[in-house]
Amino acid sequence: MSERLRVDPIACTGHGACADLLPEAVVLDEWGYPLLTAGELPRELHRPARRAVAACPARALLLERTGARQTLPGRFTGTTQGTPAQWAP
């Protein structure tokens, strides 16, 4: 299983906790907002990344599993096999 970091730019308020806890994958821009390394995280950073996600005061840092994409409950599923777009149960 591989993972990568994402940040919700709307929710992020620039606290900088993510860069303090995970400097290998997050640097701050001149205004204090996170810039994430591109691509998948190395396996040895999975646990520290989970800690950084949990510590984000704005809940703006997300850890996404790559490979097998799963639709979360209540998320928009879009169109599949010619059926109209719908909300997942």
Structure description:
The chain has 2 helices and 4 strands. The protein is α+β, with helices and mostly antiparallel strands. It has a single domain (2-66), classed as Alpha-Beta Plaits, CATH 3.30.70.20. The chain starts with a strand and ends in a 23-residue tail after the last strand. The model is unreliable at 70-89 (pLDDT under 50).
Features:
89 residues; alpha+beta; Alpha-Beta Plaits; two-stranded antiparallel ribbon; two-stranded antiparallel sheet; 17% helix; globular; disordered C terminus
How would you concisely characterize the structure shown here?
The protein is α+β, with helices and mostly antiparallel strands and 89 residues long. The protein contains two helices and four strands; from the N terminus they run E-H-E-E-H-E.
CATH class value: Alpha Beta
How many separate structural domains? 1
User: Major beta sheet, specifics?
Assistant: 2 strands, antiparallel
Uncertain runs are 70-89
